[in-house]
Amino acid sequence: MSSGNSAFVDLTPSPRPAARDGPAIVSTIDQADPALDLNEVRASLNALQHAIDKTEALRELRSDHGFLRLRERVSITPASSKLAAFGIANCSSEAVSEFQDQISTLEAQLAAASSFGVIVPPDTARRIADMESQLARSQSDLQVARDRQSALASELCESATSHKTAQADVARLGAAVEHKTRHLRTLRDNYERRLRVADNTIATHSAELDRLQDRVSTVDRDLVQASQRVRAAISQRDQARAERIATPEGSCLSGSRYYRPAKKTDYPSREISEVASGS
């Protein structure tokens, strides 16, 4: 600046064209008030320098963003990739919002500084341009993260639909299994009931068969005893007949009409009739 009532300051029309096209174009204007307080300008420049220093934080954020995207691609579980995508989207959204606010503040401060005729160094303008390009890349990454978030939301919706369908299938299969179980339980109860009836019938028939076998054994024993008595009676009859034939008196008197055989000869016939009636 020059001394006196009027001071000349250098002014660049815009910091961004200076960063893009080369050295800043210097112009001079006559400052009407030489006693202008430049504290506000210095504060604006300090804020500008502080915001530029935060560019490194933005670079680190972009590096973390790339690392998280790499982890998302190699992640095994879908849940971790979804959480990573949501985290990336949130972090990128916050960072972009913060740097948009900072860019707006810096542009306002630069406009105020330009109104005071302050020279913006080319390096500072270049760093501001770099920060704007980084902001554009961050916005692009944010859009990619938002697209990925939308895709994951769609996949989540499809997964929820598939889960509901699977739950319906499981419920249907569970009902079918329950129906089959009840049917098998009914068949088992019927089989057990019929088996008990068959067991009772077999037990009854077995008892009846045992009773019939006992009766047959008794009849067989009675038949044996009867046959023994018949044989004994026949033997007694044959013996009596032989004795009668051997007796001379019996042979002489057999032709007389007054002959009557002894009573003991009637025993064998009576024994045979008793055996026959008993059998």
TrEMBL record:
Top-level taxon: Eukaryota
Span list, region Disordered: 1-22, 241-279
Residue ranges, compositional bias (Basic and acidic residues): 263-273
Name listed for the protein in its UniProt record: Uncharacterized protein
Organism whose genome encodes this protein: Phytophthora nicotianae
Taxonomic lineage from the root: Eukaryota, Sar, Stramenopiles, Oomycota, Peronosporomycetes
